Amino acid sequence: MMHDQRQDIGQSFLEYAVMFILIAVIVVALMLIIGDQIRVFVRDALQTWFPPSP
């Protein structure tokens, strides 16, 4: 009976690890696709909120 419980715990850990890796891959792919647009948006927003001093 204990063997089944340990297997379930290991299986759930493996499922969480696979989901984490999948989410990380998706985030990296999105950053590669739209990373420049995000960088430009953040730069423009920061320059609007905090203009460079003369």
Secondary structure topology:
Blueprint: H1 2-49
Overall description:
With 54 residues, the protein is mainly α. The protein is built from one helix and no strands.
Summarize this entry quickly.
The protein has 54 residues and is mostly helical. It has one helix and no strands. The N and C termini lie far apart (73 Å).
Record keyword descriptors for this entry:
single chain, 54 residues, mainly alpha, 1 helix
Tally of alpha and pi helices:
1
Average pLDDT, all residues: 85
| Approximate helicity band | over 70%
| Overall shape | elongated
Derived from helix and strand composition plus strand pairing, the structural class reads mainly alpha
Low-confidence stretches are none
Query: What is the tally of beta strands?
Result: 0
Mind describing the biggest β-sheet? Answer: none
Strand content: under 5%
Terminal Cα separation, in Å? 73 Å
Order of helices and strands: H
Radius of gyration: 21 Å
